[in-house]
Amino acid sequence: MSVRQRMAIVVGVLVVAAVAVTVWQRFRDANGTQALTLYGNVDIREVQLAFRVPGRLEAMYFDEGDAVMAGDIVAAIDAEPYRQALAVADARVQQAGANLDRLKAGSRPQEVARARAAVQQAQAAFANAASDFERQTGLLEAGASSQKARDAARARRDETAAQLASAEEALALAEEGFRIEEIAAAEADLAAATAQRAQSQTQLADTRLVAPSSGTLIARLLEPGSMLGLGMPVYSLSLRDPVYVRAYVDEPELGKLEPGAKVTITTDSSARAYQGQIGFISPRAEFTPRSVETTALRTDLVYRLRIVVESGDEGLRQGMPVTVHMPPAATGE
Fold first, then answer.
1. Which of 72, 75, 44 lies closest to 218 in space, CA to CA?
2. 47-79+203-236 belongs to which CATH class?
3. Please, which residues have CB within 8 angstroms of residue 296's CB and are 6 or more apart in sequence?
4. Distance (Å, whole) CA 9 – CA 26
5. pTM reported for the whole predicted model
């Protein structure tokens, strides 16, 4: 082997060593601490989709595995009973409103005129009865009438006086209109009817089941024709966003972590690396779950982390084991 060849081999070894040292240093912080590696599982939230009103399931528009967007109508129940209830509520509002308008308007002019005529009639009857009583009194004093006739005249006078007082009160009520309390009661009745109509409108709208978030339907639990009770689930929706990772760290490494720290997440099924950040560190210790396949941590007390994944995709599935890499710069040492 020539000297030139030996020198080339030496230079090559030195280059490889330099690269190895550089890579090694990237995984150590200023104190020589290695990057922290954690293990956990993907945690995707699920929502049980259910109607807020009972009824007969009329249609289901998606199947298991279908992707839905927020706002999509995924199922419907028979809305006819709720349309009929809304029609009744509309009629009740109209009735209450008409009654309130009647009370606020007061008596009609014809009713006031009739009450005034009744007063005039009662006045004439009273005047006639009073005149007859005076005549019977004079005749009795002159001996030309009896006490019985005078008493009968007094009774007619008193009766017509009471009728006149009643007619005058009826005229006053007709001219004044209805009491404030009656109008307030009618206003409250209209408010109650309006609220009932709004409730009926909400119930009619609730006969359409709307996806609250974008995601994938992972279970179709019922079929059209089923009778639904209140809150009975019909679909199970796996949310597309946010995606979390549930990981665990033992107590000696706890001081290296803080909420907001950036991490890299990898899986065994893909070469893609996902970015995320620590969103929550549990204040309570617990035993490591069996799903975390790390021999050293399996029987230790650890602290749970919730890591928010940025731009998660279909490569992250519920329960999938993942590895969380935290670079030395993100640790607290």
1. 44
2. mainly beta
3. none
4. 26
5. 0.60
